[in-house]
Design a protein that fits this description.
Elements (H helix, E strand, L loop, with lengths): L1 H19 L7 H4 L1 H19 L12 H28 L7 H4 L1 H19 L4
Helix pairs in contact: 1-3, 3-4, 4-6
């Protein structure tokens, strides 16, 4: 999975540099395709793991914290997707939305990440 992360990051950065250097007249939605493919893979893996908890024989008393963590990951992925879509729409000038509104999903994602970090540092004692 680690090499897959590097591959999609490299593809995205190459496409981004080509777009910013005006070597490629591609749509911004096309530039973000490696990001969305990788996010789709992660979402499918997350949904499969969450659906595995619904199978018979699963003891819900073990790992109740785990489902909350997976739900947070799902929300985080959806916030990232919302930010990428809003950013592409703004860059392609499909919308006249103020730029500060485009960043609301990213700010919510970062605030949630800070809350989770604080919780893990101060309250989780394993």
């Amino acid at each position: 999975m680690n090499s897959l992360t590097w591959l999609f990051t490299l593809l995205f950065l190459i496409m981004l540099v080509l777009k910013l250097d005006e070597k490629a007249p591609w749509n911004w939605f096309l530039i973000f395709i490696p990001v969305w493919i990788f996010d789709t893979i992660l979402l499918v893996m997350l949904i499969v793991k969450m659906a595995g908890r619904c199978k018979s024989g699963f003891d819900p008393r073990h790992g109740s914290h785990n489902i909350k963590k997976k739900a947070w990951y799902l929300i985080a992925m959806l916030l990232k997707l919302a930010f990428c879509l809003a950013l592409c729409a703004k860059l392609e000038q499909f919308t006249t939305m103020n730029l500060s509104y485009v960043f609301i999903p990213l700010w919510a994602l970062l605030a949630g990440a800070l809350i989770e970090l604080g919780y893990n540092v101060f309250f989780v004692r394993d």
